[in-house]
Each structure stands twice: as C-alpha cells, then as structure tokens.
Write a structure and sequence with these properties.
Blueprint lengths: L10 E7 L7 H11 L4 E7 L5 H10 L4 E4 L13 E2 L1 H6 L4 E5 L2 E5 L1 H12 L8 E5 L3 H12 L3 E6 L4 H15 L4 E4 L2 H10 L2 E4 L24 E4 L8 H8 L3 E4 H17 L5 H16 L1
The chain binds 2'-monophosphoadenosine-5'-diphosphate.
Length: 292
C-alpha cells in the first residue's frame, strides 16, 4: 500500500458501476496521479441501478471532481447531467463526467479512446472498410466515431438481436447520410464482408474470461493485411488475437482502448497530459494478476 497523504485539498475522482471490484481503473488512475505528482485520489463505488440518481446527487454534494461510469449506468446516467458533449449525445451513452463548480458534463471517451488506440497504431479510419461485430453499448460508441471519421461500416450481430444492429445502422446512416449495412453474424456473412475489409473490430463479449476458448471469427477467415481489433481485454491476448497474429494479420488489443479511454478522462479532470505509458503498464500488471 502506498503511504500517501490525503488532505483537505485532495480532489476526489472515482468510478461507479455494479459490479466494480474487478475494475482496473482505480489502479490505473491512482498510479497516474502519483506519477504526475498531483493531489488527486480515485475510488471505486459500487452503485446499484436504483441508486444512480442519488449517486450523481452525491457527486454534486460532495464536490467530486470526476467520475467514470461503467456497466450498467452508461445510458441511464444521462438525465442526471447538466450538459452533454455532442458525441456522447449522439452515441446516447456517457462513460466520463466532469464536475466544473457544480455543472456536470458527460463525455464518451470509449469512443475517442478507441479512435486514439487506432491512430496510435498508425491506422486512419477515413475511407476504410470496417466490419464491426456486435451492436451493444461498446459497438455503438465505436460505430458512431468511425462513421464520423468517414469509415465505411458493416455491423454484424447474432440473429437474436439483429434488430439492434439494424437500428444502429439506420441511425448512423441517417445522421451521416451514408449507407451502413447490418447483417447477421454467421460464417457465411463473415466470409463475404471480410473479403473486402481493411479492419475488423470485435465489439462483442465473445472470448472474454472465463470463455477464453471462444472466438467470434473462424481462424481460416483471417489473413495478412487485415487489421484485427479486439476490444476484449481480459485475457490480454484473446484467442481471436492469437489466431489473427498467426495468420499474419495486424492486431490491436482491447488494453489499448481501456488505457486510452482512461487517459482521455484523466486529461479532462486534471487538464494535464496523461502518462499513457505508465497507465498501460499498470493496466497490464493488474490484468496479469487477474489472469493468474
Ligand atoms: P458492451 O457494453 O460491452 O457492448 P453489451 O451492450 O451487453 O456490452 O453488448 C455485448 C455485445 O456482444 C452484443 O452485441 C451481444 O449480442 P446481442 O445483442 O445479441 O446480445 C454480443 N454478444 C454477447 N455474447 C455473444 C455471443 N455468444 N455471440 C455473439 N454475440 C454475442
């Protein structure tokens, strides 16, 4: 345990969600605050669905500087905020709140963090053919920012919830006046769309611990030249990423998105450039401890 001093001047940030005990965010942010030698503290709060409004009222009352928002509150938190960043408004989900003297503003750094992770690897979405697997919360954030940056999108979701994929695709098509296709997630459609794809993003939970032997894409459909981004970060190297690597594809790990969404939140709360390298090391250390 670090022996740091908490004083009357310490600014408090935190994360609300349920469950929360396995979150990597407290370790990542506290390490970043310490590295930058700023008097901030980051704490986890387990907040049940029905207590969300009270938790946000508490943020105001206690003058908490910033909050990260995670499952299941990213959509439900919106009515309790004063202002929304335009991208968060379009996506319809918030993962970061900044409290400026009692005015609460919501952002979506899942989207900007995903984009930053791509750009960091030298991948520019403009004009690229991108295939997104899944149509849940993470897919929404990713699809909107990619459409905004001029990528061509195909969204695949399992039959069960195909309506969601269609709704998402049609909303994006309307807003950006460009065609977005929605298809059922199956091997035949995957083979068809991956033929033309530059980048494929797994935004489903397939392959996430404890189901680490699952993969959303059969290995035979992976090829050199394809960029495979798996937003699952637990395990750090999913079966999809291992098979993509073996097929000669370029891979980007969900750890990158985890780190960048945190780094961009850090910058909003502190006004400082985030120590991204350290935050990545801290995330990997925490995830490895979790894996063992
Ligand atoms: P998140 O916030 O991480 O995006 P989510 O909103 O629950 O979480 O979305 C999870 C996504 O993974 C959904 O698209 C889900 O598909 P459904 O909409 O059909 O539920 C997808 N998903 C989860 N398990 C899956 C599986 N076994 N096969 C295919 N897709 C799966």
């Amino acid at each position: 345990m670090r022996n740091r001093v908490i004083s009357g001047k310490t600014r408090v940030c935190g994360i609300i969600g349920d469950p929360i005990e396995h979150s990597m965010s407290p370790a990542i942010h506290n390490a970043a605050f310490e590295k930058m030698e700023i008097d901030y503290l980051y704490v986890p709060f387990r907040v049940k669905k029905e207590a969300l409004g009270k938790a946000i009222a508490g943020m105001r009352a206690l003058n908490i500087r910033g909050l990260s928002i995670t499952i299941p509150h990213k959509v439900a938190v919106i009515p309790f905020l004063d202002e929304l960043d335009p991208l968060a408004e379009r996506i319809g989900a918030v993962n970061t709140i900044v409290n400026d003297d009692g005015v609460l503003r919501g952002y979506n750094t899942d989207a900007t963090g995903f984009l930053q992770a791509l750009l960091e690897r030298g991948v520019k979405p403009e004009g690229k053919n991108m295939v997104i697997l899944g149509a849940g919360g993470a897919s929404r954030a990713i699809s909107f920012i990619l459409a905004e940056r001029g990528a061509h999108l195909v969204i695949l979701n399992r039959l069960l919830e195909l309506d969601w994929a269609e709704e998402l695709a049609s909303r994006i098509s309307q807003i950006f006046t460009k065609e977005v296709e929605a298809l059922e997630l199956n091997e035949e459609n995957l083979a068809k769309v991956l033929e033309k794809a530059d980048i494929v993003v797994n935004a489903t939970s397939v392959g996430m611990s404890p189901n680490i032997d699952e993969t959303p894409i059969p290995a035979k459909l992976l090829k050199p030249g394809l960029i495979v981004f798996d937003i699952v970060y637990n395990p750090i190297k999913t079966r999809l990423l291992r098979e993509a690597e073996a097929a000669g594809a370029k891979t980007i790990s969900g750890v990158d998105m985890l780190v960048w969404q945190g780094a961009l939140a850090f910058e909003k709360w502190t006004g400082l450039k985030a120590p991204v390298k350290l935050m990545r090391e801290e995330a990997i250390k925490g995830l490895q401890e979790h894996e063992n």
